[in-house]
Amino acid sequence: MIEHGRLSRTQEYLLAVAAAVVTANAYYIHPIIGDVAEHFGVSDTRIGLVPALNQLALAVGILLLLPLGDRYSNKRLTIIFATGQTASLALMTVAPGFAGFTAGSTLLGFFTIAPYLLPAYASKRVAPERLGQVTALLTAGVILGILVARVGAGWIAEHYGWRTVYWIATSLMIAVTLALPRLMEGGERESARVPYWPLVFSVFGIARKHPEVLLSGAIQALNFAQFIALWLALALYLTAPPMNYGTDVVGYLAALAAVSILSTPRLGRWADKVGPRRARFILALVQLAGISLFYPLGGSLWGLVVPLVLVNLVGPGVDVTGRMTFLLLAPDLRTRLTTAYVVIMFIGGGIGSFLGTAVYDMAGWAGVCALLVMSTTVLSSLCWLGTRLGK
């Protein structure tokens, strides 16, 4: 089906679709978090543990499992991890209590490795001058998955109940898992002679030798933390007094992320020309401007549209440019460099998941907006530092 060697354009797009499906699973909770909390009878702070533990388990899973991509076939690993995701989603779907639902979500995070294997897999099969474009395409697939998950989950939960969301998600994962053996070509050399634990611990040594990945990881940790915190808090804010909207409205607002699907590939090509570090700093400044508008415009649904469009336009570009700073390094290191980057990123996501709901519970929408402004200010400062270190 797929031409051996370089990726065909068809394969690039199919991999982006697969990335969308396997990524979506962590984001169905965003618009329906209030419904799930009400169903299980837990507080806003406690329901935040579901996405927080999912993100932290993902960081652990990436640390322990993603380095295997430098040892075993990416095709084999992707199929195994997708199967683990499917089983975890099934547990969430039928869980009778909050503990079982949280356990399923945590296991789901641990097995969500495929979206982070795919960029390393693709980077070995594209010409260097197309790396930014293909990385951006896969990122656009991830954005599509997040978009469909949040929009679809909000609408489906409003009309058919939140459990229906997870029945559909499980079915989609079964379809993707069955398709992966034909979608991904094999032919990769495996290095089983490398012992497992030295391979895992080598991530720390490699990261120390390439401090760029640590800085990029810290920047993306902040970027991802504020993304998660924003959407969880926004779902609680919009569905509570005085706003009193339904989960479908939260999903409709999430549809604004569609602008990212159009902008991210173009930002990748632009970053190929101007350089990833300079591009990242410019994008961070635009993001800071957008974040600063959430409080003054947050009193109305239409007012929220302006900052949401700005943030969705440039936020994924910060991730793309961050990955570009290290994906041009030696091919045999890329999976482990990606491991370090994504582990740091999802530690940030776990912290953001908890803070988004906890700060909203304590200080409301105003407190969340203040948290986001502080976070983006630090992010922009680190991006500026990256332009200095890159010279």
From TrEMBL:
Entry superkingdom: Bacteria
Residue span(s) of domain Major facilitator superfamily (MFS) profile: 11-391
InterPro entries: MFS (IPR011701), MFS_dom (IPR020846), MFS_trans_sf (IPR036259)
Keywords: Membrane, Transmembrane, Transmembrane helix
Transmembrane residue ranges: 12-29, 49-68, 77-95, 101-122, 134-153, 165-183, 213-237, 249-267, 279-295, 339-359, 365-385
SUPFAM superfamilies per the UniProt record, alphabetical: MFS general substrate transporter (SSF103473)
Cited Pfam families: MFS_1
The name this protein goes by in its record: MFS transporter
Lineage, highest ranks first: Bacteria, Pseudomonadati, Pseudomonadota, Alphaproteobacteria, Sphingomonadales
